[in-house]
Fold:
Amino acid sequence: MGTKIHPYFSFFLLLFLSPHLSLQSFAQNEDEAEEIKRSDFPDHFFFGTATSSYQIEGGYVEDGRGMSNWDVFSHIPGKIKNDDTGDVADDHYHRFLEDIELMHSMGMNAYRFSISWSRILPKGRFGKVNRRGVTFYNNIIDGLLLKGIEPFVTIHHHDFPIELDQRYGSWMSSQMQEDFVFFAKICFEEFGDRVKYWITINEINLVAIKAYLEGVYPPAHCSPPFGKCSTGNSDIEPLIVVHNMLLAHAKAVRLYRIHFHEKQGGSIGIAACGHMYEPLTDHEFDKKAADRALIFNIAWVYDPIIYGDYPKEMRELLGNQLPSFSNIEKNIIRGSLDYIGINHYTTFYTKDCLHSTCSQGSYRPIKGFFETTAYRDGVSIGDPTGEARFFVVPRGLEEIINYIKERYPNKSIFITENGYSPPQGDGNKVEDILNDTKRVNYHKNYLTSLAKAMRNGGDVRGYFVWSLMDNFEWIDGYTTRFGLLYVDLHTLERRPKLSAQWFRSFLGGNPQRLVKSSSLITNASHSLMDA
Ligand code: NOJ
Structure:
């Protein structure tokens, strides 16, 4: 493959040499004895950024894309801060080449992104494949491979065709399993010759709580005391939704293994929301509460996938409210993954609610009889961030990896998300947003914690920063900025923040890739990238 210097390159070089962001002066202010280095990680470790379709793409009515649950929801006044929507988002639909170039210039060797289900199947399995949607993702995948960046594809990250909700209630119905497998099959067929790392569904544990317990994500189901929605049952529905998602995942993995793995040789996993929980006090009850919190969040997802059933502690507290797997289903779900994906951002203190007074909702079995807080004796667990529940607690990454290593020995792990957004109080001035020293510190310290966990035997294969660029942060709209790249909300211009420069210097700007990419790229995309 002939390497041609892309016209964007000189532009990016200029940006990285931008005079007002001085990485050197930043480094001099640091008092850490030993800085984390690229060489603290194996050569073939993946360093990437992560995004999801609805959060960055825009182009929501273009080229045959169908309406998704998030399109409909974000257009309901009052659901999202400032009534923001993903209609345009970062306009990645038209700017993906520039975005790939920016990842490359940071030295990233991997990129995790998701496929918009309604761009590929506007009406789910009840309609036709939208070829223009397939072309869009082919171009992204080929564009990445040309730059030596490994694509990690999330098949489903929150957005799905609204048709599936209207027809049968989406994830509340077992029919959604069928639709998901149908969609996954098309992804394997169309992209599997080049995509070697698949993630079936993103954060099933988080979606179930946000959408069916709190009712703040579509389809906004909930019941008191958790919230006021027009419909829903917060005690039961999250459990049904996760059950359907787990089975959808397992059936897609089975399909991949039977029909695609031999020829395509890829691997497949799932990504769960994986925060850490520490006991609020040394009391035995709080220690048990922290264990329960990990079980009700992490083991809820990974015990069935790895061991074939829900954790016994959940069954004890939830009884028949917790759905059951038939023997056939247990056989399908047990062992249905090649690696564990963890989206980790923060650590919570955990308080027992079986023996002490808590808020009303904590007494419901669905909440596991524990409560979380960021404060112990008035002191916060870490520095605050732009997401009210998240605090900066680097040790939590090491702790969660240790937990996973012990509960699921011999499983490799990807940190599929880790990232920082600054508190609102830090201001909106562009120079301040660009000069994101707090984000640099966040990643340095979390990477240090990650390296420690790996030295202690944690089998971690990759680390993905959330996010490549500022984007649509669900119900927070564009008020929260997680990106390494600043995105001007009006012009959509991207500008590297100090953290992007830090990664560039940390990674040495030399992407390493395991698989030789040139042979995988379709001819069509050679002309695309050369254009
Ligand atoms: C996890 C989700 O996967 C992602 O969509 C979200 O933007 C980040 N957390 C930050 O909240």
Remarks:
- The longest helix spans residues 237-264.
